[in-house]
Predict the structure.
Amino acid sequence: MTQLPQSTDRKMGLVIDLDTCVGCHACVISCKGWNTENYGAPLSDQDAYGADPSGTFLNRVHSYEVQPAGGHAQLIHFPKSCLHCEDAPCVTVCPTGASYKRVEDGIVLVNESDCIGCGLCAWSCPYGARELDAAEGVMKKCTLCVDRIYNENLPEVDRVPSCVRTCPAGARHFGDLGDPNSDVSKLVAEREGMDLMHEMGTKPVNKYLPPRPKDQIEEQIDILAPLLAPVAEEPKGFLGWLDKALEKL
Amino acid sequence: MHPAPSVIIFTTLSGLGFGLLFFLGLGVPDVSGWVAFVFFLIAYALSVGGLMASTFHLGHPERAWKAFTQWRSSWLSREGWCAVIALIVMGLYALGVVFAGQRWSALGLLGAAFSLATVFTTSMIYTQLKTIPRWNMALTPAMFLSFSLAGGALLAGQTTVSIILLVVAATIQALYWWRGDTALARSGTDIGTATGLGSRGDVRAFEPPHTGTNYLLREFVHVVGRKHAEKLRIISFVLAFMAPVLFLLLPFSHAFAAVAVLSHIAGVATSRWLFFAQAEHVVGLYYGKR
Amino acid sequence: MIGSQAEKGAHLSQPVIDTSPKVSDEVRKTTCYMCACRCGINVHMKDGKVAYIEGNRDHPVNKGVLCAKGSAGIMQVNAPSRLRKPLRRVGPRGSGEFREIEWDEAISTAVGWLNELHETAPQKLAFFTGRDQSQSFTSFWAQNFGTPNYAAHGGFCSVNMAAGGIYTMGGAFWEFGQPDWDHTKLFMLFGVAEDHDSNPIKMGIGKIKARGARVIGVNPIRSGYNAVADDWVGITPGTDGLFILSLIHVLMKAGKIDLTYLGRYTNAPVLVNATDGPEKGLFLRDADGKPLVIDRVTGKPAAFDKPGVRPDLSATYDKDGVTHRPVFHLMAEKYLSDEHAPENVADRCGIPAQRIRAIAAEIARVAFDEAIELDHEWTDFRGEKHSKMTGRPVSFHAMRGISAHANGFQTCRALHVLQILLGTVEVPGGFRFKPPYPKPVEAHPTPHGDRRPGRPLEGPHLGFPRGPEDLLLDENGTAQRIDKAFTWENPMSAHGLMHMVISNAAAGDPYKIDTLFMYMANMSWNSSMNTKGVMEMLSAKTEDGKYVIPKIIYSDAYSSEMVAYADLILPDTTYLERHDCISLLDRPICEADAAADAIRWPVVEPDRDVRGFQSVLIELANRMSLPGFTNEDGTPKWKDYADYIVNHERKPGIGPLAGFRGEDGDKEGRGAVNPDQLTRYIDNGGFYVAHIPEGADYYKPWNTAYQDWAVSMGLYDSPQPYLFQLYSEPMRKFQLAAEGHGDRQPPEHLRKRLKDTMDPLPIWYETDQQGNEGFTVNALTQRPMAMYHSWGTQNAWLRQLHGRNPLYVPTKLMREHRLEDGDWAKVTSPHGEITVPVMEMAALNDNTVWTWNAIGKRKGAWALQEDAPEATKGFLLNHLIHELLPPKGDGMRWANSDPITGQAAWFDLKVKLEKAAPPSDAQSQPEFDPIQSPVGTGPKDLAWKVGK
């Protein structure tokens, strides 16, 4: 399965709203919890209570400061997991076929029993979406919760990735990005959703909604009349205004 | 990239080994019997030893055989096939040369071709990676092939050819370093495209997603000081090319030849250390590294 | 387009995976305890073990979502730092040397210490609880023990926030109320910290962001919620009040205030005595004590709540030579003054005047030009019917940043006054209370501190003083409480002063105590200012070699730093192994549309010899036969906490849980005890919700439908309509005393301060800068969202996110001090110094540094290895903060706290920054000796998969 399918029936993926993500790491830990207990080997932690704790996570939240040419610096929280690329280099480099992209929904998965842990797929991924589990010696990555989204043991409303279900701010959206009429596709169109490292040609399925423009209030709001025109300059005048205003009520 | 000893040993030794096999396949030097046996032994020790070393970094070496399945798309799989074919063909060829006194030259040529192909496929494992602009250059396979050939010629005891190939390899090495140093900048990928935020202003990595380390940082982010790297480049260049050429230019002696070979190996290993250690993976951009 | 042969072939060769694996054997629904949100959680069980935790979709608080801490609960339940057995100290205090004992010995030891105190001198027990979520129970225990010395951690956390709100409008932010997320069009968030009510706030911000509504953040630090704010106001710490009063100035001056609302629902029209004398500043009241207003219909004074009355905001009233002016006149006088003009506050606030005006204009535009109306009929308390509910869709919220200053109480009041002037409280699109709020001061108790050996206190410890008569002072003027709450030093200290308990006890001021009993309060580390000093006080000895604080009992589930300083440890369970109730009698989990409460229940049984602390308290009470815990025949009323939750009645028909009351479980709010109540809660997902009827859901303080519903629910005994207190008469009473009126007089040295700070209308004042010469940089702390309020950073997953903390330094100071990321800086305050690593932050007030709080750990605590980054690189800013201000040379030490409430003013910290060489061991300074871990250290590696 090292070869990529020419196209997939659906393009399931995430839309991440950088305008709304508050950087709380809820998605990170929910993912860790679900995927430790479910698909494949648990996400292990080394030196868990020691000097150099380091574990496998499939989703991590970075943060960046952006300094615009004028005005205040901005802080942007930036969750990142597998983008389930249409042209996924991690699939084609895999020597054993362990890494594959599903035809039915485009999810990129690792078949752990075929994985030799060579790491080449992680080398080929520009996004840092794959981590070799130090305990199990196999490559771990976001499964888009393939064991949740179709899971008949879960109520239908819960058949979304655990990160989406748990996100308190609603900054993560899940759906079929191959269907132009899906909610996620409309959101991407409306908010000008973007690709990460477009130049890599990986054609990520996951999209990022850019932060809205910030710190515009002084340009947008007229601080004089009519909003803030003083009713009177002196306190006495104010009481006169008050009497008149009360009459009108 | 993390300069893992296993991959440095692998690419250095197997490059030499397959380089020597290439020359042996061409019938250079024209040896037979026990002398040939020793040459083949050296070549197999280097190439097989290198291949063995490469399995040390696998999470599951016992499944390595599965790597033969994806030759249609995976350079690593192709490398596996080429190496096995080269070793089998050259093995048969060697049987002829050593034990039967026969030189099945068609077989030798085929083996030589697969030996070079093995080196080429190895280099393509690195070259194909857009994520590492320093590797993603035509100079990468040129460098691997020229190193392999120069080393092979050296081991094959071909003084003149060695000198020529060492000069060629040295030139390619210099070109590789020169172009490599600007490869990331020329790639068009930076923290702005990585985050999609570049159009809004200067982007700077703030708090990392975790305060400790992780697989990505261990594997992909290795910072070598510029001065340290320059020093290592000079050492590598002197050991891999200048010293061997010098020794080859001196009146021939086995001792000098041995010193030239050892110096070359040390130089190539140093170059390979730099090949990995200096390679910037674009994932580092997300962590604000480089 | 799709489905070529090749692909079909490929499809077939894909591995077959099970996309419907069994998720769990069983889901047990309980309540999270990782912070004060108290979200509903689904605990997925496999083979009797906790396999996975997710949010409960039906739960009123989190509606399915869950934060990082909540999902990491599984690592809290298996944490190696869990205490395993009761402990008796064998080494010196602070060493961490213990021997394990049996529960029998633990209980009888505690009873041996406590019973004598109960019978002879109950005040010699100081019982203080930290992250306690059972305060209505723990206070009941303390009340029945008879000690006046009880409080939880509110005094150093949030009392300004809570008391400022209650005194002004009968409720506050956080657990008391929330913005109307569904209707608000402009949301303005004040203050550092991104914690209290964290999931609801994240959900709310997500909602309004999805609508494209504007969020304005006022916070020196642009992290978290401020990072997603459309506009960021990087204000100078401690000047929020100044900024708010300037907004009030601009809005009032432009007439952009809601006169109808002010006239009907606030004390703006209430008449205030304006003639010098002992009554000056007090309300004119009728014979029933009701404040009077001038009725615009008759032009005559009338009780504020008289049916049909139209209160006049402008008319004055003269009677017997005494002039009475409406509160609104006093406000106009004060706030229209030029001292509040944006130009005159801009520099101090660090906000350009233009920006202040722009924000005021936007507030005015949204409040008045974008007003909304809901077609909900309602009747107000004066009997007037309204066909619509008018909403001014501007909402405000604040975090503790604005309150942890010595001017925090007045700042919180100022913010509420701003909301009220705009008419945005309890209206659609504005700020809404959550039951049992609104609840005016009059419906809250006053404080009680009498001490009568062997008998219970006459009422609850904590309350809201109405005037000097409610202070807890002995006849000679000394404090009745060990923390000196409710004294002239901090008259309105409604949450007590936990941060003063240890230093006062160590100093024997106002008196010596015998036993310090604490629960989940890490006082020897991150929960104290002056951490090193507190450690010394806890282990200080008298000349005869005895400890100054003779006995310390401590209960915690984990091996926290405080464990090492106790003589007797009562190990608690984790939150998944216990019964609890999140009660309407306490700090409930209600939403603006509903009253709600919840339980915890043991979804797993402890695998160690530990017991839920509340059940242990009941056992102690039973062994001592404490009054409220004992039947008339001398038998105990309750055997454990679960028994108490179900069978305790605070008043007839009203118990800890409001749901499923009555013999058949069909009553809510009021009803007889239901023996099956806990089962019903468990079957219902661990919680109960009673929805507020439509038409009763806004204008709650004045809406008869709401008032009647609240009575039926048992929230009030009778309808309690009231006016918002723009002008606070209780404060004026303290001020009058300071001016020399009345019997109860403050000590001379406090007179001026009381006069200055107890202004009945919100003011802003510069906090005491004595001793701060040369210390010019503000230093703040907050906890990361992934750790806020969670008990310890030993969590194996969370500590990977935040395993150490740098000092964040603004770009300007980085350049000035030639610092680069990873360099070290020495940070000095008038009290102490630390040497710590720095990191640049551009989105930060130019003159403010900050760090994540409570990441730093002491070596040996929390079952972490001694070289854990928390213990080597992590650090506390607490070392720089003292509970007292630097000496002024007047022979007295003044508390570093708000002079009104006593709230610890840890955000007033000022420091000096210098580049430093890295410490020789590359560890943050100061370092402390390791404590011996009573539980060893955690395992090396983890791969926590429960299922097969």
Summary: Chain B touches chain C at residues 204, 206, 209-212 (CB under 8 Å). The radius of gyration of chain B is 21 Å.
